[in-house]
Amino acid sequence: MRYSNATNYALHTMVHLMLQPGGSSVGVQELAELQQLSPTYLSKILTKLTKAGWIESTPGAKGGYKVSRTKHEISFLDVIHAIEGDTSLFDCSIHHEGCLIENVMRQAEENMKRELESKLLIEIAKEAESQQNEEKS
Prior knowledge:
By secondary structure, the chain is mainly α. The chain is built from six helices and two strands, in the order H-H-H-E-E-H-H-H. Helix 1 packs across helix 3 and helix 1 packs across helix 6. InterPro entries: Tscrpt_reg_Rrf2, WH-like_DNA-bd_sf, WH_DNA-bd_sf.
């Protein structure tokens, strides 16, 4: 099972935005440079995060992106759904009622969803901040 690169970039972007002091905005150019991406590609990811309501965009020369919700509300699963959608990872190709294989796969997916929903991005942001502070010392 594999998530797209867009999900990887979205998660890293969200953590970076959470680390901004006072909820200040970060421009797409800076965000793209941090991850060595084209601003055009990252803009598509940012659009999905904006539509999902996790970040907001401020236009203009001093504009950019910032987290639009309480940081303690945003889980890994929230960001994954914003990028990947909420469709099932497994789709049984043999359509019959009570498919035992499909039942096992759906249960495993539900377990994974619960785990990702319980992990908040702010926890990772705080760990990253701690590592940065240790490196500076």
